[in-house]
Amino acid sequence: MNITELMQSYFGAAAAGPLARASGLDAQAAQRALSVALPMQVDALADHAATPQGQAQIADAMQNLPAFGSVQDALDSADGASNLERAGELLSPALLGGRSGVILNAVTGQASGASPDSLQKLLNMALPLLLSFLAQRGLSAAALTEVKGTLGTLDLGGTQATPSTAAVGASAGLGAAGVGAATGTAALTAGGLLDLLKAEFGGANADRIAGAAGFGGGGQRATMAALPLLLGALSTRGRTEAGASEVLSMARGFTGLTDSGGHLNLGFLDNNAETTRVEGQGRGLLGSLFGNVDELTGRLGSALGSSGSNASRLLSLLAPLLLSVLGSRAGAANLGAGGLSGLLGGLAPLLPGLLPAGLSGLSSLLGAPAATTTTVAATPTRVETPVTPVAPTPAPRPVATATTSTTTVTPKRGGIPWWLIPLLLLLLLGGCWLLRPQSNEASEGTTPAATEQAASILVTNPTGDANLPPEPFTMSGTGPAGTSLRIEDQGQEVATASVDDSGNWSAELPAPTVGEHTYSVIGGENVRSEFKVNVTDDAAGTGTSTDDAATDSPAEGSADTSTTGDAATTDDTTGTDAATGADTAATSPATGTFAISEPAADATLAAGGFTLRGTGTPGESLQVLEDGTSLGNVTVGDDGSWSLDVPSPAAGAHTYAVQGPDGTKLGSVSATIGEAEAGATAASCTDEYSLSITDGQTVSEPFRFGGKGSGEGYTVTVKRGDRTIGTKDIALDATCGWSYQSKPGAGTITYEVRPLGDAAAEPLSAVNLTVGQ
After folding, report:
1. 55, 280, 496, 621: least buried by Cβ within 10 Å?
2. What does the longest C-alpha to C-alpha distance in the chain come to?
3. Strand residue runs (E) in 308-421
């Protein structure tokens, strides 16, 4: 799809109608006006971009405008029409200059009889929408000259192409490298991609994947029911260029699951350990793609006549495979984030038709919002760009002198949205005076000292929109010497810093949770710099779903991740031997008494928890690990015996290792956990509540605990001191067990367990654990 077709889709009849109503025009008049005005605005922007200063102004405007997913999204936000009009009033004189009047005259001739004031309002609203549209398609300010004069008059009539026949998902970006583009066509469309995916995940592949997830029959039906749910979540995540960039980043971790031709490579399903590893990685993805994984898997399992556990396994296996195919196809088509965004957006209306017959009830789950996803128009992602470059000098930049007057524009309507403020500052400080001659609402003579200071508080590391691991990191930057800074993560203070005499500052920040974080660096009243980072856990085999699905905001020191009882386990990150029984029931030469007596080497155990038993030196403290994940500590009794209850391990092969007090591995045993019985549910669970870990232990991370219980399940509340840093609802599995996995970062962490749905209840357990470095 070329840029003309993309603009006609974005500003077509579905967009022109709401804009017409907001500007007081009839729909046909608005369509005629926009069809002429939009190409003229593009040409005027291209002319303005012919100079470096003009390019910089357009680039700044593009960066600071929200990524409006659609015209309707922009209008549906609070005071949407008023804010768009206000943005146009600010931008038009600076970016279009005298061409504004020429465009209005041309539009007036096309929409005869329409009020000039209404047409001007329409044009003002269209300009910020146009800039946001171009930015999301990867069209840089420098590349605008390449599309000048190529658009002609747009066809914005009521015959907008339907998703089933139009290439609503552009498969090539319109970035500077490929904007030539204005007359080119895409090699792949949303419909074409969907056909490709149906072929890859159908037939024998579908049966094989579903079989690995525990579906004995009807594999194709199960796989084709799960596939659109994942595509819906990815379509929602990738609707913006930033979101599509995240999808590409996720896909890079699974390149080995497709061959050089982009076809599925399912050889890993022949190896239980590899299958468990991939499933664990996929389970971690589900937590970031869906808001309530348990509800989703429960409904899918019920619709397929199976269990939520099997549905969870199916989705967990499909997610990495789907990402691998998407990443491979995007690479083959030379798609960047902008192109993939269009492609994923075009999938959404096609997904209901992918559901198998009789499963249309699942359509309400398509495009379910992710736990960390925010609707762009309602809460735009903020991208901070420094107003003026400030070198790390001992003193702040001098405040404007008395001979430089500034203007404060008093808004006519409501409050000013955050994204208008940087636009106003950028243009004012760039020397563009935006007072309209007829305005009497301006007051002059205000010196923007606070604004100068805010502009000079810069963050140089990490960069905005950077991808960070969930680990402690150093934040640094520049600012006015002697300024005291407070650093907040989404409203909660996480660190402080002081700017030194050289104008530099740095602070050590605690590990953030996985997901999107907006950090604020505050230097005084109304003086702050804000920027966004994305925290992603790309470590292979972590097998955890993140506390982004938790109900509490991430907070100081939190890097917590969690899994429910049927979650896959992690790779051995602590160097524990993952042998398959060779080290089983070993006797330690150092003590001569250590042994693992149960289970037997390479035993196959029933689904659910079991007890690990052995012998050792009386009084010695041992740490037990499952595939490298700590299950806690146990003390050898006076009789030389020890035991530890292993809570609800995931089905599949596992290695259980035991370490001595100094971390030396004493021995290990391998066992395979079976699947839960077909049709088994937690509905009849009456087991007494139990907890596998005791208060006061020192553990390594990640670690896992759980137990047995009754009712629906339990809620785990995670605290660092008095501050709640996360909560997780955990449903009982089919064996009446539950399990929680955590990676909160070093320090003392409190875990409180309450019955699910009773947040006011006294905790059934409250354990304080010390997490080692």
Report:
1. 496
2. 99
3. 407-409
Q: Residue 128's closest CA among 74, 51, 168?
A: 74
Q: Compute φ and ψ for 109, nearest 5 degrees.
A: -70, -30
Reported confidence tier of residue 515, pLDDT bands at 50, 70, 90? confident
| SS3 state of residue 226 | helix
Q: Is 753 exposed, middle or buried (0-12, 13-18, 19+ CB in 10 A)?
A: buried
The stretch 126-139 carries a mean pLDDT of 85
**What tokens appear for 332 in the block?**
């083959």
| Phi, psi angle pair for 601, to nearest 5° | -60, 135
Q: Which is it for strands 629-635 and 621-626: parallel, antiparallel or unpaired?
A: antiparallel
**Cα-Cα end-to-end distance for the chain:** 52
Continuous H helices in 336-419: 337-347
Alpha-carbon Rg of the chain, whole angstroms? 29
Helices (H) and strands (E) in the chain, counts: 18, 27
DSSP state of 453: H
Instruction: Please check whether residue 249 is in contact with residue 344, taking contact to mean a CB–CB distance below 8 angstroms.
Output: no
Token output for 192: 């074409």
Q: Is the pLDDT of residue 319 over 80?
A: yes
Q: What is the DSSP letter of 686?
A: B
CA distance linking residue 126 with residue 140, whole number of Å: 18
Write down the residue that tokens 């962490």 correspond to.
Answer: 749
Q: How many beta carbons lie within 10 A of that of residue 272, not counting itself? A: 16
Pull the structure tokens for residue 110: 């096309």
Which H helix or E strand runs over 316? helix 308-332
Bridge-based pairing of strands 765-771 and 703-708 is unpaired
Prediction pTM value: 0.32
- Rounded to whole angstroms, the Cα distance separating 508 from 132 reads 35
| Structure-token pair, residue 755 | 């019955």
Highest mean pLDDT among 142-151, 524-533, 566-575, 614-623: 614-623
Contact predicate 483/524, CB 8 Å: yes
Question: Of 85, 69, 71, which is closest to residue 15 (Cα–Cα)?
Answer: 71
Give 379's Cβ-side CA count (13 Å radius). 6
For residue 723, what is the enclosing H or E element? strand 723-731
Task: List the Cα angle 376/379/384 in 5-degree steps.
Answer: 90
233 exposure class (CB count in 10 Å sphere: 0-12, 13-18, 19+): buried
Q: Which of 647, 756, 757, 758 lies closest to 708 in space, CA to CA? A: 647
Secondary element (H or E) of residue 18: helix 13-23
To the nearest whole percent, how much of the chain has pLDDT over 90? 19
